[in-house]
Amino acid sequence: MLFNSYEFIFLFLPILFFGYFFLTSKRLIIASKVWLVLGSLFFYSWWNVAYLPIILSSMLINFAVGNSFSSTKKVSKKTLLSFGIVFNIALLGYFKYADFFIENFNGIFGFNVPLLHIALPLAISFFTFQQIAYLVDSYRGETQEYDFLNYALFVSFFPQLIAGPIVHHKEMMPQFASHWNKVKNYRNIALGLFIFSIGLFKKVVIADTFAVWATNGFDTASTLSLFEAWATSLSYTFQLYFDFSGYTDMAIGAALLFNIKLPINFNSPYKATNIQDFWRRWHITLSRFLRDYIYIPLGGNKVAALRNYFNLFSVFLVGGLWHGASWMFVIWGALHGGAIVLHRIWQQLGLKMNTLLAWFITFNFINITWVFFRAKEMEDALKVLGGMFGMGGVVLPNVLASKLSFLQNYGIEFGGFVENIQGDYFTPVWIFAAFILVLVFKNSMQKRESFTMNKKTALFTAFLLSFSVLSLTKVSEFLYFNF
């Protein structure tokens, strides 16, 4: 089920909300948790009920392993942890990477092993990482004892289930166990609707507008001129941001209705002035997982310089591959890994850079590397990158032809300057407006901190929600559903 759908907004969410607090008002605490778990599993299986046994078996096995650390003496804790991690990686590897490895195996050795054509279960990357973190923390003795109902709610809670944030057990499980969260909190309800409305507007109005130009540029157009290529890359850069941060806002807002506070996942990442700063702002919970459960166990920065560079690079390769079974994601991860290593060397040399120049370099690096992230094949990436560097020619708007006709002597043409991506004169206006939004205005989490319940915020919420709902003419999935 999609957040940006009539079924979710007008049926699922209200029914789950009122049913939950009706049960808590009758002090039926266990029943209220069962209600949330069943509702979340219904939300998850809306697309395909065949996914349900996968997440249920994953929850049961991980909970059993996590509880066994403190109860069993027949098997060592390290053996249990190894089993749990191997189980999770094997589950993820089979469903997400099996065909990818078979294709590469066939290509390298010349075999013809048939592909399995396995459908990727929704959210498997997210709930797998979440449960690996739980197992590691349980192994370290950092978890408390919780019953399976609380654990099932921790894993399946519908706001964060499909595309994150990747939550930590110590952030969530105490909240589900707390009796203070069983009573309706009208400030949380107002704040939740406020944040949810911002996220819905980001997705439906902004991200889906950029999606048209990005899709046409990457998937449809055979050639791209200079402005078309830049419009394509920037459209995807902003589509991805407003799509994923919009989902996260909706997740945080929906969770607040139930008095659950999810962690921040975005903090104005396009304001970053270096690549490390970017990864402290973008998909924060994924960065935290990679740091705590891969980078630090590899030795982190407490090793020799070359080993540290290797650790950094390896983490970003894993992060790239986590996003999907494609060499394009590996290339994207390698580029970011190389950039983070260069940044570390730059820091160690004590070098400085002008802030504006640092932002310009950082943003353009991110924008260019998103091309690899989005492209289905290398050919698509080279098409866009070639256009961005002028290899597809330069086409200026027709309205400039009379004044700049002399430029035709230098190979510059006049015509529809973004027609290959079905753009128009409003396309650069949208791109300029997006820059203003992400660089000048406060982000949704900053607005959350300064939120007050008054007529102004009520009208603002009502406007965003109404305008977004009226824009639900074409329901589209969130980009991170693919990962």
List keywords for this structure.
483 residues, mainly alpha, 2 domains, 20 helices, 1% strand, globular, acyltransferase activity, membrane, MBOAT_fam
Largest beta-sheet details: 2 strands, parallel
Radius of gyration: 24 Å
Order of adjacent strands in the largest pleated sheet? 1-2
Helix coverage percent of residues?
Answer: 55-70%
Number of domains: 2
Distance between the termini: 16 Å
What is the N-to-C order of secondary-structure elements (H for helix, E for strand)?
HHHHHHHHHHHHHHHHEHEHHH
Class computed from helices, strands and strand pairing: mainly alpha
Overall mean confidence score, pLDDT: 90
As a percent range, the share of strand residues is under 5%
Instruction: Specify the overall morphology.
Output: globular
Family: Belongs to the membrane-bound acyltransferase family.
Organism: Sulfurimonas xiamenensis
Keywords: Acyltransferase, Cell membrane, Membrane, Transferase, Transmembrane, Transmembrane helix
Main location: membrane
